[in-house]
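The following block was generated as part of the benchmark described in Methods. Ligand: pyridoxal-5'-phosphate.
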Amino acid sequence: MSSTVVPRTDEALDELIETQTEEFRRRQARSRDHIDRAAASLAGAATSNWQIAEPHAVWMSHGAGSKVYDVDGNEYSDFHGGYGVSLVGHAHPAIVAAVGERVRRGTHFAQPTQDAIVVAEELSRRFGLPLWRFGNSGTEATMDAVHLMRAATGRDRIIKVEGCYHGHHDSVQVSVLPDADEVGPADRPNRVPGTNGIPAAIIGLVDVVPFNDLDAVQRVLEERPDEVAGMILEPIMMNAGIIHPDPGYLSGLADLLHAHGALLAFDEVKTGFTVGPGGVCGLTGVVPDLVCLAKAMGGGLSTSAIGGTSRLMELVANGEYEQVGTFNGNPLAMAAARATLTEVLVPDAYARIERLRNRMVEGITAVIDSRELPWHVVTAGAKGCITFLPEPVRNYRDFLRIDGRLGQAHWLVQHNGGVFLPPWGKVEQWLISVQHDDADVDRFVDNVGRLGHELAGAGAGSD
Ligand SMILES: Cc1ncc(COP(=O)(O)O)c(C=O)c1O
């Protein structure tokens, strides 16, 4: 019998989530013990709200190579990658050596060490911007970018894309992951606070636009002449699945903003090293005024960077803008970043990731095709996701149409099948590290096959 179009029933999906949730709980008894104990001293029994997920947080023991191990002793192929940090995998020998060597010679002086120069030179080479500074998190990098755009232009307003996440400082906690009933008109999205505690006055300084819509940006710039300092965006959106820019969108933004005396900042905190050695700048050749980096740059240690044009970074150099921080350029983080950039994320590593990316795409696409599932695969270098819709997603409104239960079911099936992914699955899926191999990818693809089988029902597609 030829494969039939899969009628995904609500009941099949709900039932799958229920049985997989039971299985999850059965496997995570020790995590629950940790949560019970932690509840008395850690708010929400976790160290970040993102770790509090349904059914509950997974507490980790250790990682090695492409694998992580939870406190219950379960092994996973780690495609979570710590939200995009672990591009080098776990305990990579080059990072262990660099950090081990540094740790014995002192880890903090609040003065620069030579590794900072090597890292800055490498970032200049990869991203095409001459001058750099370091911080400790993606949030700090995008905060400095917004401040710098304001300092350089003497203007207060910024433009932000609906559905982009740039960390948790005030100016960017607007329309991050708003619900469908909050978003307002598609061409003039509402400003939706991302959390409580953000002053209305600051939210009022943010104009929200849809991704891939140059006209919306032009309209804001024309309606607010000489008021907009600049625009910040993820040049490939990666906090609402993966959404690629239309051809010409990024260069069009640069032209538009510059024509109105405003600046452009790329938040490459997620894309930075994962989509290629020089991030989206390297892929597209569009070099903005400012680039923000973090996550994968530190090889598992917390660090971040902001790079800019000579004109903008002169404001940092001469103190007109105070880019500061006790831990900026921390020697331990710089040693790890130096090893990450010069020894690990080298051309061979990117070639390996590309081979695994192809294997992943082919494997999942074969499952989708054989069962005629209304889904498709989207990738950008080491990052990828299954979009649970047949048609392309071009902006956040399209993303909202995805049934979140499919992401949840996928996440649970992967988890119980030995693949660790970011909880709950709708916003973000996989990161391939330099230490993954074919068997890791095949484990992932097999789990997608199982998901397809469960949702397709008996008789649909081939096994
Ligand atoms: C695109 C982007 N920018 C900024 C951030 C904030 O980074 P951090 O969590 O290190 O502050 C994130 C975090 O996920 C991110 O995805």
